[in-house]
Specification:
The chain is of the alpha/beta class. It folds into two domains: 275 residues, Ribonuclease Z/Hydroxyacylglutathione hydrolase-like (Metallo-beta-lactamase, Chain A, 4-Layer Sandwich); 43 residues, no CATH class. The protein is built from ten helices and 19 strands. Strands 6-5-4-3-2-1-18-19 form an eight-stranded mixed β-sheet. A seven-stranded mixed β-sheet has the order 7-8-9-14-15-16-17, with helices on one face. Strands 10-13 form a two-stranded antiparallel ribbon. α1 links the parallel β3 and β4. The radius of gyration is 22 Å and the shape is globular. The two termini are 24 Å apart. 42% of the residues are buried.
Amino acid sequence: MRLHFLGTSAGVPTRSRNVSAVALQPETGKRWYLIDCGEATQHRLMRTSLTLPNLETILITHVHGDHCYGLPGLLASASLAGRERPLSVVGPPAIRDFLDAVQATTGLHLSFALDFIAVEPAQGPLELADFRVESAALSHGVASYAYAFTERHVERQLDRDRLIALGLPPGPAWGRLQRGEDAFLADGTRIASDAVRRASRRARKAVIAGDNDTPARLGRLCEGADVLVHEATYTEPVVARLGTDNDHSTAARVARFAASEELPSLILTHFSPRYATRRDASPSIADIEHEARAHFSGALFLARDRATYGVNREGSVEAPDGENEGPLHEGETP
């Protein structure tokens, strides 16, 4: 699977960072999923190969503007482009109220049906085309959620030893079983494909959290996760100076949680605009990295706008060019 970061700034955009949005793609196919949709997300999408007709589902973590103000414009553009296929939007009820108000006051008319699904963690997983999605309530100034995406369609392979034990030697029947069809023994006994095929690997799992000042809320959701994407709006010295965390997490707080859960990979995002992208500035995003590394020894990444992070079949995160690139420097193309 692949994670495309379309915006990594908290609250407002900067010259090199847009506000929150992440696109998630399964390993194969053109379908993709959007998690949060801050202002100008559709502009960021224009710099990718992702297209609105192939957008499968939008999931919004909470109603704050830097996570949802881009949603009406993106929906309008999809409509103007002629989309007819229904589109699901998952989120807290306030998101439905927001969209209803925009449609009522601006005359927004969509050419496709909008199916709103309210987040209900107690109701169990949501089955999407490519992922099973679980949610958890977080701690923030408004209702905020995290989503865990687990692959639904893992490649399956034949259990050769079981087939031989059943008395079915290699041959055309094996091919039928691999294609999902049933086969028969010489005595007429039916062998169901599902009974002799097993997953070739473990399903990958990525957790993407909304704004949250208490990472421990994610304990259940992070069980078996390959990667956690979580906000690190501040460093602890800045919170001490401000006298408040504004219901957000620090890099240290998230890193300590990730370490306690033995998560293999952590991607930090949603950085306060006060942190410059230049490493020689103060404060800078390098401060966030240094604070997190002091508490987390796993694979740590600081998300960059327009960067794509892959999760390979072994569950390891692969950053652009196979390594964790540092933050953009001032003067680079945002």
